[in-house]
Write a structure and sequence with these properties.
This protein is mostly helical. It contains 2 helices and no strands. Helices cover about 95% and strands about 0% of the residues.
Amino acid sequence: MTGTTLAAAHGTNYTAVTITLGILFIIGAVIAVVVASYFRLQSHRSDAVAMANYRKLAEEAVANQQELRGQLAKLTEHVNAVEQLMREVG
């Protein structure tokens, strides 16, 4: 108890205050970095999900396009057959 009375009698201990504020500043900086990193990670995760959805959509579009090309080829064959028939008749 006499140590605190003695320290208070001589004034403020700036070293203790500086160390305390430094530690608090470091803890605050670490918390800020952790929070920023967490939200950046969440952003990257949502981007990855969006890219996966776009990739799936692109694969479906390619499959649909191939199916349409097949149907168009069949239609072209039928049109050519009809044209040939019209030439033979007309």
